[in-house]
């Protein structure tokens, strides 16, 4: 430890949220806080208190066993992770994918956190299926920041491990939009899988989806950079989510059941308390498209929403160019 570090206040880290990804984030961070002198060793993880079938509280079991037995069973979090049912205020980075749609327009989750807590909030997104990272399989992630490069470098230090490579880009909106919108495309990919349409069809849907992601992001936030979509948060996250994420899994089941079982039923049955993001995001994005008169410019996003509310059958996902004339733009690459 250098002489000067005795005088530097050590940063304390709290993870707000303790689901599958929150628990993996706590594990990653805890392995670094013990190693880095600029951080307090202890990592607090805020847990929404639940009673387990045994009658014990989830926080008590996490603190006794060092495992999140409900959302990440079989993985030790690190002895310096402490589960706590009370929220503390923390320096902010958001791992939440989604947006809130208000009358005055869409609001990103990081902006909501910034405004509510009065703090600078970065985001971390990427090709991050949590269970694989928990098993320490190699993957990457992207930190998006707006102005404070120093804070972004701190997050890179805090999350990065030899098996989890983190890079920072100055494009918080672009990084966060990638993490939000790819879940809509994953729902579309799940429909394709459920109807056994094959790899060429799935690749086409992913390509069209990526073009709509880029277009929508730039129409909402003109500062978004093209290069962001080539980071882990962009094309890599889109690929992994369309191959193996929870949104793909539930949409696959929805298509196999020909829409006869609702997304709510399938979510409860297949996800063990985790939430399905793509259907809600499709609804939120559709509200923006509808409000701004953009529906016909985004045939894939619009069709995913229509299928998910039962207005169209899952097979409509490959009929994007058939009905409305504006949809024929897809084939001409004008999106």
UniProtKB/TrEMBL annotation:
Its EC number is 1.1.1.8. GO terms for molecular function: glycerol-3-phosphate dehydrogenase (NAD+) activity; NAD binding; protein homodimerization activity. PROSITE patterns: NAD_G3PDH (PS00957). Residues 12-90 form the Glycerol-3-phosphate dehydrogenase NAD-dependent N-terminal domain. GO terms for cellular component: cytosol. Substrate binds at residues 97, 246-247. It holds the Pfam family NAD_Gly3P_dh_N. Residues 171-319 form the Glycerol-3-phosphate dehydrogenase NAD-dependent C-terminal domain. InterPro entries: 6-PGluconate_DH-like_C_sf (IPR008927), 6PGD_dom2 (IPR013328), G3P_DH_NAD-dep (IPR006168), G3P_DH_NAD-dep_C (IPR006109), G3P_DH_NAD-dep_euk (IPR017751), G3P_DH_NAD-dep_N (IPR011128), NAD(P)-bd_dom_sf (IPR036291). It catalyses: sn-glycerol 3-phosphate + NAD(+) = dihydroxyacetone phosphate + NADH + H(+). NAD(+) binds at residues 17-22, 48, 130, 246, 275, 277. GO terms for biological process: carbohydrate metabolic process; glycerol-3-phosphate catabolic process. The active site is at 182 (proton acceptor). The keyword Oxidoreductase applies. Keywords: NAD, Oxidoreductase. Belongs to the NAD-dependent glycerol-3-phosphate dehydrogenase family. PANTHER family: GLYCEROL-3-PHOSPHATE DEHYDROGENASE, GLYCEROL-3-PHOSPHATE DEHYDROGENASE [NAD(+)]-RELATED. This is Glycerol-3-phosphate dehydrogenase [NAD(+)].
